Amino acid sequence: YPDSAPSLAGLDIAGAVFSATRACGDYYDYIRTDDETVFVAVGDVSGHGLGPALHMVETRAYLRAVLANTQVPGQALAELNTLLLEDILDDAFVTLLLAKFDTRHSTLVYSGAGHEARLMRGGTQSEPLPSTGLVLGVMSGAAYGNAGPIRMQPGDIVLILTDGFMETRAANRAFFGWEGVENVVRRNRQLSAEKIIAALYDAAQLFSGHASQADDMTAVVIKAT
Questions:
Q1: In what order do the strands lie in the sheet with 11-18?
Q2: What is the mean pLDDT of residues 122-135?
Q3: Any residues with CB less than 8 A from the CB of 157 and at least 6 apart, and which?
Q4: What average pLDDT is seen over the chain?
Q5: With contact defined as beta carbons under 8 Å apart, do 223 and 156 qualify?
Q6: Residue 208: band (very low, low, confident or very high) from pLDDT cuts 50, 70, 90
Q7: How many Å apart are CA 78 and CA 99, to the nearest integer?
Q8: What is the pLDDT of residue 86?
Q9: What does the alpha-carbon distance between residue 145 and residue 210 come to, in Å, rounded to a whole number?
Q10: C-beta separation of 99 from 39 below 8 A
């Protein structure tokens, strides 16, 4: 995982992984391509344990290599899918959202492989950022669309999470869900990206009654400043 978040004018970025076991199948990364552009990736390998963790290490390495040759998120995911098909077992797959932030134009372009996100305008009004293609590693020749460019304004917040957050359950079996996530962000929208992640994790733990995590939980928060 990244040692630190990138420093770009107009963006406050933070990420964290809260692993359910010692071997984590979740992944996030920042890939800088120039002084004003950064790719943010968040992914989740199906299953738990050492096998998924190794697939995620492979995914990270492949994606970084692919982005050396293309700046288009959907094309990058298509190439990544081809590479992963060679190695991933028949019953495994990877969900991944790849977002390109361009601070020159204050825009976001993204592509999602079975992975969605949220854009919260002003930290309050939620807009879905739906998946644009299939999960990775299951079908040869899969295509991945690009969504955007989406113009971001100061105060906007992008949430890219793995499903461990949304699938956190209370004692009555209710899910934390995107509704729970969005409510936490609204209450804490004035905080830094790092503190919003801390608030999300604390709220999910409280919701579950501090039960043992059933799944890895990963979050990247990007605030336009």
A1: 11-18, 217-224, 157-161, 117-121, 125-129
A2: 95
A3: 119, 120, 123, 185, 189, 193, 196, 221, 222, 223, 224
A4: 90
A5: yes
A6: confident
A7: 14
A8: 83
A9: 39
A10: yes
Residue with tokens 């461990």: 164
In the chain, beta strands by DSSP E? 11-18, 26-34, 37-45, 94-102, 107-113, 117-121, 125-129, 147-151, 157-161, 217-224
Give the integer Cα–Cα distance in Å for 66 and 52.
Answer: 21
Q: Which helix (DSSP H) or strand (DSSP E) does residue 54 occupy?
A: helix 50-67
Read off the tokens for 57: 């290490």
pLDDT class of 22 with cuts at 50, 70, 90: low
Cβ(159)–Cβ(194) below 8 Å: no
Q: What tokens were used for 169?
A: 């359950």
pLDDT at 29: 94
Cβ atoms of 123 and 186 closer than 8 Å: yes
φ, ψ of residue 177 in degrees (nearest 5): 65, 175
